[in-house]
């Protein structure tokens, strides 16, 4: 019996030794886990490409612009520029990618970049949008000609500089009307139309129809970007007769001069202004404004001897005006 137990024990010992040997051999076999650094087929992950995106102004000194959204839909990329106008983007190697940039105060921009296969810096340049200040769209009715005129005047501020503005155009699309504004004075950003007759919009245009029209302003930049501002409209055209009572044509005035006119009653606020010109050169020698609406006269100190013209103007709060005819008189003291 003891002999049989010894034989069985020896057999178990041999089996255990063989199994341990097999396990040892299997542990020393080549590994095939690509994520195991000790495996025979291990391949290290590629290092990401670092692309620094800089978004700058279109013109020198090319300052970085913060808060600009930059995106590339084809590779699901989106980020916002930091205070320096930069974004650091880690990505796989790219044969090409189109980056788009968008900011509230800028025209949208985009650019195609190729061979982003190594660390690099790429630049996007954005054109700043112009904006308007101190816009005035006014009308003027001439009693003596019975013509109505309009004028559009505004500051067009371009953060990239006045040289970036190629053209500023007033439009009335309903009548295919266009009028190009010009700089009021060199070195400023104030653009204005000439005084244009409402008949230039359409030969059948009437003063009553004009307030119903919708106008727009188009600002074109040198690089081809354009922006449309709308709508603009005229509040009213004041076709109000202004009857001048004295001095009358060719009157001779001695001493103080009293200008008189017929009373005017309207359903909106207005004031009067008297303009005084000295002949023969039409030199503007006096502007007497803010005369109350219920006034019918204005007296001024004696004038130097000579011939003069006077004009009465009625103006509402929006600076729409009605102008009287011109009266010629002589001052003798």
What does this structure look like?
There is one protein chain. The chain has one helix spanning 2-27; strands at 49-57, 69-72, 77-80, 86-91, 94-102, 109-116, 120-126, 131-142, 147-157, 165-172, 177-180, 182-183, 190-192, 196-197, 215-221, 226-232, 244-246, 251-253, 257-261, 270-278, 283-291, 297-300, 306-316, 321-323, 327-331. With 333 residues, the chain is mostly beta strands. Strands 8, 9, 12, 13, 14, 18, 20, 21, 23, 24 and 25 form an eleven-stranded mixed beta sheet that branches. Strands 3-2-5-6 form a four-stranded antiparallel beta sheet, with no helix packed on it. A four-stranded antiparallel beta sheet has the order 11-10-15-16, with no helix packed on it. It folds into three domains: 49-126, Sandwich (Immunoglobulin-like); 131-232, Immunoglobulin-like; 244-331, Immunoglobulins (Immunoglobulin-like, Sandwich). The chain has one helix and 25 strands. A hairpin with a 4-residue loop joins strand 8 and strand 9. The relative contact order is 0.10. Residues 1-31 form the signal peptide. Keywords: Signal.
Summary tags:
Immunoglobulin-like, 333 residues, 11-stranded mixed beta sheet, mainly beta
Describe this structure in a few short sentences.
Residues 1-31 form the signal peptide. 8% of the residues lie in helices and 47% in strands.
Number of helices: 1
CATH class of the largest domain: Mainly Beta
- Average pLDDT, rounded to a whole number, is 91
- Rg estimate, integer Å: 42 Å
Pick out the low-confidence regions: none
Instruction: Summarize the main sheet.
Output: 11 strands, mixed
Count structural domains: 3
Q: Quaternary arrangement of the chains shown?
A: single chain
CA distance, first residue to last residue:
163 Å
Estimate the global geometry from the Cα principal axes. rod-shaped
Keywords: Signal
Signal peptide: 1-31
